[in-house]
């Protein structure tokens, strides 16, 4: 974001130039047209800068108002949902239309109602066969 004094040096430079032209007008014939053009541009630039700063202030104020309205809206929605919840009840499925999750009871299924597990049955581990004179392989990470 530009600073308020971003063009301050430029404006002071132009003011100094116009002041020097005014003090030495007798030495500079024909400078009046350029001087009036620069004065007009200086006044126009100052007006635009003030407008830019005012717009920045308005933008900030608008943002703050927007944030406040959104905060107030969230609070109003919370209150409305609380009223709906107290009027309708907490277990009806109609609450989902208002963006509220109803309280649902979870029913457990009995073991007899569960389907049997599907998939291959686990094989029992095969016993290791050791040959005479051979040691069992060691785990390299254990000691």
Describe the structure.
The protein is mainly alpha-helical. It has a domain at 8-104. The protein is 51% helix and 0% strand. Helix 1 (8-23) packs antiparallel against helix 2.
Q: What gross morphology would you assign? A: elongated
Query: Main beta sheet: strand number and arrangement?
Result: none
Would you tell me the structural class of the helices and strands?
mainly alpha
As residue ranges, the low-confidence spans are none
Distance between the termini: 67 Å
C-alpha-based Rg, rounded: 42 Å
User: Mean pLDDT across all residues, rounded?
Assistant: 79
Helicity, in percent? Answer: 40-55%
Q: What's the number of helices?
A: 2
- The number of distinct β-strands equals 0
What is this structure's SSE topology?
Elements: H1 8-23, H2 32-88
List descriptors:
mainly alpha; 2 helices; 143 residues
In short:
The protein is 51% helix and 0% strand. With 143 residues, it is mainly alpha-helical. It has a domain at 8-104.
